[in-house]
């Protein structure tokens, strides 16, 4: 069914010099129709096919793209690509918005429970949609256990702290275990087969494959119609750390991680799903006081993560989650336990 323009008419009533009523009818500006890629200047069927192959399927995706990305995808000149982006942005009226408008838009943000009330309270209610939450810590600290818990929590109804949708898992360290999903879902009284079917898992064999899988998430949403509400990357930096060795390759590694996280952040914002990434750590030998543990990825990972949590082992088998960085939450700590039934309070 075609969309029709909504016409608004203003009526002005006035009197002439003889006292006769004069009615003037003026048309107000018509509401803009939603544009498609075919409405963009200099774009034909062949160019649209090239754009769609790499994931540029609508006006918004073109509007937020960089000139370099579109040049690589279409082979167009830089001037032509700039006109393309400008036309897409003008059609969407991408202007500033007021704080109250943004607050109203953020009412669509939801949070996914971690299974622990203490950790949820630390995070303001759980893992937030529309951004990236990074958990870093040493081996055995519970990062992947938390990922399994969240993959199930994402399927719960909103009123139970879930996302009422599907989870996507990009596995870089062979950490996903369907047996663990069955174990936790049984404790929640969920159908084990259905729960596993609502988790889409892909193994990434190198950093380029990992970045490609990140871009393919949009295909799951648009082409397959999946209601993706959580994306898990476990772990974020394993392949990059193994492939780019030495200071000479550090700049290239950081650029690729930056691009990968930008894609995840952009998709999370556009489609309102939560991103949970785990990160490896290293020991800083020049630290003489305090905890020498530092996350891999440096400032690039830190700046791209909206919320950062450091998980460490506690006493008597417990785990301690420490909120390191958040745009709106105060720093703090919460203690939890990893059990057969999932993540639980102590």
Provide a descriptive summary of the structure in words.
With 346 residues, this protein is of the alpha/beta class. The protein has two domains: 7-95, DNA polymerase, domain 1; 104-345, Rossmann fold (3-Layer(aba) Sandwich), CATH 3.40.50. It is 37% helix and 23% strand. It contains 13 helices and 15 strands. The protein has helices at residues 45-53, 59-63, 67-74, 78-92, 99-105, 117-122, 143-153, 178-187, 192-197, 207-222, 238-243, 250-271, 298-304, and strands at residues 9-15, 21-27, 111-112, 127-128, 132-136, 166-171, 199-203, 228-234, 274-279, 281-283, 293-295, 307-313, 318-325, 332-339, 342-345. A hairpin with a 5-residue loop joins strand 1 (9-15) and strand 2 (21-27). The chain is globular. The relative contact order is 0.13.
Q: Would you give the CATH topology of the largest domain?
A: Rossmann fold
- CATH superfamily name of the largest domain? P-loop containing nucleotide triphosphate hydrolases
The number of strands is 15
CATH class (first level) name of the largest domain = Alpha Beta
Poorly predicted tracts of residues: 1-10, 23-32
Per CATH, the architecture of the largest domain is 3-Layer(aba) Sandwich
Taking the sheet with the most strands, its summary is: 9 strands, mixed
The whole-angstrom Rg is 25 Å
**What percentage of the residues does DSSP assign to strands (E)?**
15-25%
Strand order of the largest sheet: 7-6-8-9-5-12-13-14-15
What level of helicity do the residues show?
Answer: 25-40%
> Termini, distance in Å?
56 Å
Label the structural class. Answer: alpha/beta
Q: Tally the structural domains.
A: 2
Overall pLDDT confidence = 88
Instruction: Note the run of SSEs as H and E.
Output: EEHHHHHEHEEHEHHEHEHHEEEHEEEE
Total count of helical runs of at least 4 residues = 13
Global morphology: globular
